[in-house]
Write a structure and sequence with these properties.
CATH class of the largest domain: Mainly Beta
Helix content: under 10%
CATH topology of the largest domain: Immunoglobulin-like
Low-confidence stretches: none
Shape: elongated
Strand content: over 45%
Largest sheet: 4 strands, antiparallel
Distance between the termini: 75 Å
Order of helices and strands: EEEEEEEEEEEEEEEEEEEEEEEEEEE
CATH architecture of the largest domain: Sandwich
CATH superfamily of the largest domain: Immunoglobulins
Number of helices: 0
Number of strands: 27
Length: about 325
């Protein structure tokens, strides 16, 4: 409060009493004064904020604006007035329309306030090329197998991701199966094995796990070995478990060409015996055993690579399986 008396200088005249209030001028603080939105895929967006505050007195006023094609003021844009201590929160959205570095200045509209410098990078979205999209394995004898490959490539930007899987009795993913993530330009080679368990045409679809990617159509023909009856196998063979990868159960199929003492054992990757599924004398024929991903004490085992081994007399066959919990 600022009082004052103006004297008129004559006893006949009243003096004049004055009063007024002194006020600090407005002051402005902008936080932060720069925003880095990083990399954003075209078609996506990212929001960030800054604050304008009147740290002085009086009234601070202006208009928040921008004129950048890849940015938008979601809230807090336009005219504003701020009394002492008041703040305005402004939300800025970066939504790139094309690839490349995208700078922008957000104007705060008052000479007391710093403008806000924004930058972001637009990135092309992922795109997928699968080559080939169909595989013909031709004719394969039961007890034998044939491998082939296909490639998944991210021909765009960003990150392409999915899970390669199949659920066909006569096929197996030898490599490249399961989850994948591919940056721009990266590729994944998937190896598929056709191992017919019976005769006839065997179709299968390998799922690539992303709507951007075509699935792969496989076909093959199982053929009975010469001199082998279809209802009584006469080969010593251990087939790929199904499903693989699995959780929590899988089936293991094998055939015996003679009566003999047989063992079927699960080992971990270090060679430690985990579970004995079979240990008895068996007659010639085709068999299927189930493993529930438990050890010999009934305890669940962890995710990972395991091996199953079939022994009969002095013959041994081993295959790999994968548990994904």
């Amino acid at each position: 409060m600022k009082p004052c008396t103006i004297e008129t200088g004559d006893a006949l005249c009243s003096d004049v009493s004055c009063t007024g209030v002194g006020e600090d001028p407005p002051a402005c603080a902008v936080t932060p004064t720069s925003i880095d939105f990083g990399t954003v895929t075209i078609g996506s967006s990212k929001d960030s904020i800054f604050t304008i505050k009147n740290t002085g007195g009086g009234t601070l006023g202006g208009s928040v604006s921008e004129a950048c094609a890849d940015y938008d003021l979601v809230s807090g844009g336009g005219p504003y007035t701020l009394a002492a201590g008041e703040s305005l929160v402004v939300t800025v959205r970066f939504e790139p329309l094309s690839s490349g570095v995208k700078p922008c200045t957000i104007e705060t509209g008052d000479a007391l306030c710093s403008d806000v410098s924004c930058t972001g990078v637009g990135e092309d979205p992922p795109a997928c090329a699968v080559t080939p999209t169909s595989i013909d394995f031709g004719t394969v004898t039961i007890g034998s197998s044939k491998d082939s490959t296909f490639t998944i490539k991210n021909t765009g930007g960003g990150t392409l991701g999915g899970t390669v899987s199949e659920s066909c009795d006569d096929y197996d993913l030898i490599s490249g199966g399961g989850p994948y993530t591919l940056a721009a330009g990266e590729s994944l080679v998937v190896t598929v094995r056709f191992e017919p368990l019976s005769s006839g045409v065997k179709p299968c679809t390998i799922e690539t796990g992303d709507t951007l990617c075509s699935d792969v159509s496989c076909t093959g023909v199982g053929e009975t070995p010469t001199g082998v009856e279809t209802d009584q196998p006469h080969v010593f063979a251990l087939y790929q478990n199904h499903p693989n990868p699995f959780n929590p159960t899988t089936w293991i199929r094998f055939s015996l060409d003679r009566d003999s003492m047989v063992s079927l054992v699960i080992y971990d990757i270090s060679g430690k015996r985990i579970r004995t599924l079979v240990n008895r004398r068996m007659t010639e024929g085709m068999y299927t055993e189930m493993w529930d991903a438990r050890d010999n004490r009934g305890r669940p085992v962890v995710s990972g690579i395991y091996f199953y081994q079939l022994k009969s007399e002095n013959r041994t066959l081993t295959r790999k399986l994968i548990l994904l919990r």
